[in-house]
Amino acid sequence: MSKSVPLSAFDAVISRAGTDAMKWDKYKNQDVLPFWVADMDFAIAEPIQAALLERMKHPILGYTLPSDGLSDAVRGFLQDEYQWEVEADWLVWLPGVVCGLAASCRAFAQPGEALIVNPPIYHHFFDSHEPHHHIERLPLQCGNDHRWTWNFVTLEERLKAGGVGAIMLCSPHNPSGTVFTRDELNTMMQLANTYDVTVVSDEIHCDLVLNPEARHYPTAAAVPQLHDRTVTLMSASKTWNLAGLNCSYAIIPDPTRREAFKAAVQSTVPPVPPLAYVATEAAYLHGGTWRAAANEYLWANYQYLVERFADVSELHVHPLDATYLAWIDATNLPVDNAAEFFEQHGVGLSDGAQFDHAGFIRLNFACPRETLGKGIDRMLAAIKTLTS
């Protein structure tokens, strides 16, 4: 049984200097606080650290297979969390979700076929395909409630025209933070079935549902009668801050699609490192209390962020159900590029143009409240320079 984790544990400001951290070393020797790339500034859960230290007692780190215990841990977690019964042979292990996107493009789209993506969306959805494919952008629609979701009318019109190999979903959605409803997922899958299209669902943020009123449904589990049409990409990496260890997996119920995916992975994707397997198993078996505390802290961080910007007319923080990535409308800010503007004032953010939505910025709030507050202070001071 994991020990309880106090929320105060996430207040600890841990220097990442000397660790070659991509997030921080982008601005090495600069006075810029980084809120861009999606990793956390929190110490990993103690059971994960303990499992890694125990494995390091053995002096050999050769090619390693996923253990039966790891498979059981993942399947047990999915059953408990989502009531999703996954067979062991449905799992295909990968060193990252991005290579899973690339393998899916190769496996499920013929030369000349389109891959549908829904911007604003994680930038690797735009560059994982082969040169003989093309990306078809069908933007999400943003309603009066500022919630982003799919435009099913536009989607069906495009599917009717033919020539689509796969629909590439991001669920929960990055960067909007939307958790799609079961009805939305059902509509998506019914259209995919009608027009004979594979659905590839990147669900790397599925265990980071912060809004207590929201619930994530894995696409395959939401519409179980059509699960053979799905490829689900998951990982413990975002939830438990293990991104640097490189371990994820695809869940592919249909044997034909699974073999096509494995063929696309062969000789192009390296094996998962041994320590990554160890950390992943420990996360699913013993990381539950840490995850619950982290999500509670992150939800409070998001609410703090919204409160701090509530009276700032130049920025609007969109509602968020999942991820630790705030999606902020900066179109009222009188500058050419909001991300560059804030970077010049000591805050490193992701440019919305990276997600095919210029005028927005994305802010990673997975950090101690003190660090987040300093970043917000700098952003507010920067905005004042435009009006003073």
Question: What features would you describe in this structure?
Answer:
The protein is an alpha/beta fold. The chain contains twelve helices and 15 strands. The strands form four sheets. Strands 2-10-9-8-7-3-4 form a seven-stranded mixed β-sheet, with helices on both faces.
Structural class: alpha/beta
Strand content: 5-15%
The rounded Rg comes to 21 Å
From the 3D structure, determine the CATH topology of the largest domain: Aspartate Aminotransferase, domain 2
What overall geometry do the principal axes of the alpha carbons give? Answer: globular
Distance between the termini: 56 Å
CATH H-tier superfamily of the largest domain: Type I PLP-dependent aspartate aminotransferase-like (Major domain)
The tally of domains stands at 2
**Helical proportion, percent range:** 25-40%
Number of helices: 12
What is this entry, summarized?
This protein is α/β, with parallel strands linked by helices. It has helices spanning 22-25, 46-55, 68-82, 97-108, 152-161, 182-194, 219-222, 255-265, 274-286, 288-309, 338-344, 369-387, and strands at residues 33-34, 91-94, 114-117, 134-137, 141-142, 148-149, 164-170, 198-202, 230-234, 248-251, 316-317, 325-329, 347-348, 350-351, 360-364.
